[in-house]
Amino acid sequence: MIARVPWGLLVFVAALFVPAVGSRYHTFVAGDVVIWALFATSLNLLVGYTGLVSFGHAAYFGVGAYVFGFFCVRLTRIYFAMLTLAFAQIVWAICFKWNEVTGGEQGMPEIPYPDFGFVERWGARVPLLGGWRTSEYYYFVTLVLVAASLFALHRIVGSPFGRILTSIRENAERAEFIGVNVRRYELAAFVLAGAFAGLAGGLFGIFNRGVFPDFAYWTKSSEVLIMTLLGGMGSFYGPSIGALVLILLNQQIVSYTEYWPLVLGTVLVVLLFGFPGGIAGAVGALAGRLFRRLRSA
Amino acid sequence: MPDPSFVFAQSLSGLTAAMFLFLIASGLSLIFGVLRVLNFAHGTFYMLGAYLAYQLMLWLGPGPGMFWLAALGAAVTVALLGGLVERVLFRRLYGKEELYQLLFTYALALILSDVAKLLWGTQQKSVSRPPGLTGSFAFFGATIPAYNLFIVLLGPAIALAFWFVLQRTRAGRFIRAAALDRETLGALGVNVDALYTWVFMLASFLGGLGGALISPMRATVPGMDTEVIVEAFVVVVIGGLGSFWGTLLGAVIYGQVLSFGILFFPRFSIFAVFALMAAVLIVRPWGLLGRPLR
What we know:
The structure holds 2 protein chains of 2 kinds. Chain A is mainly α. Chain A has one domain. Chain A has helices at 7-16, 18-21, 24-50, 66-72, 77-97, 99-102, 117-123, 134-158, 160-170, 172-177, 182-207, 218-231, 238-254, 260-274, 278-296; strands at 108-109, 210-211. In chain A, strands 1-2 form a two-stranded antiparallel sheet. In chain A, helix 3 (24-50) runs parallel beside helix 8 (134-158), helix 3 (24-50) crosses helix 13 and helix 8 (134-158) runs antiparallel to helix 11 (182-207). Chain A starts with 6 loop residues before the first helix and ends with a helix. By secondary structure, chain B is mainly alpha-helical. Chain B has a single domain, classed as ABC transporter involved in vitamin B12 uptake, BtuC. Chain B has 11 helices and 2 strands, in the order ααααββααααααα.
């Protein structure tokens, strides 16, 4: 019953109303959440579905992934994590030092919003389309793009292709044995995840009005890994929930204290020891228990 | 062709950096070799070693031998902390997925580095060089600080001691056996749980010692942990995770590439190191002297 409700659609529609109902600040936070949700979900395609732990996902937050992927999927397990970290560091070093292209340490400030003038002129006559700020138009564009991407990712995960990825995570040897070209599938997953991460990165660059080498540093990759874990790696919407909770938590905590890493670390420890399935896993288990109790009563 | 004395000074400075990295990376490599986990918190142990050395120096006051006492005290304190963490928390994750262990050490790094910030603030701390090693020597026209020379000599000494413990003592034999097959070792009546705690403590000791010894050379600041963990990580990957001599070789290569890289392409010397690491990972994922994982 619960599974029949189109939750994704409901959330999408609710998110559309954020600029109308909330303040500018709410729209900002919502935009942040939406972009990071896509980023975390794209990572989950690798970690949760294919069983490849990437510590360098932030590097593809701005760059394509094919060449990296080609080398990375030749390795397994811990070596994969290491090589992704190495490549991420190279990308970061390039961003940090290549002043002519990336602006070096300063990054690229003042990236303009796309021109929404035509929408304003054309939409002024349509009741709901006119009269928004540029940042709010950008929020709508982001929302639609992310929703479309999440829908696509959802289809990918549910497709035979997605099932093969899961089988690789469960037992790569056996998958190989039944005729799956494991490396090719892993590469495909890597490239797909990288492409969606790249889209999220592009959206974030404009949203944040600037790009800085920090985005590609490995600690960023681990932050998104924590979002994925917090929400629940096993479930499709888990990473989006994780992104929402972590960003809201960050907004709350940062106004009280500068020791955000301390909070983040503590959250992580509690998760690892108490709720390895993340929020989605915990809620699922709780719902299951309630359901059983209702039935037996 | 650059001046030979300059080349000599440059390679010696690379060697000094390499010896520090060897101290830290050998701990990282030891934990990986035995426990099969990459310890992100190792860099934080190194930072705590530096801060604790500073704190102990404050308490002990100036005096001959006080620096060595402080360095040893700092390393022992870090080792105890490492042992405690292993006993109370880390132990529970052994049977779980690799990712959980990796993320736990990362969480530990986040927490401990913020605790260090709470305790010592964000201002940089410095420790003066121990008496007797404040001067410098002239070699082939280059001036070498005595402390750097001491470190260059200390590195191989610790490497030898470490090698002796691993290869020639009973405890070392157990550690090597645990790296190969934990269950069989346990079946033979060795207390593997206690052994793991000792390994964690020994590795933390090496990290803490590295931090304490570097405190007279570089300022102790927040953020030195993430910096060093990436460096140590590159070293063990080049040399081979879990390989003792590989770690030494990796550290020496790292130091030389970095110090000469700065001469030839100043802006991209970090890049050269990471490119080297990536090349090693592609050709020999288990490192120059490492053995492939089963």
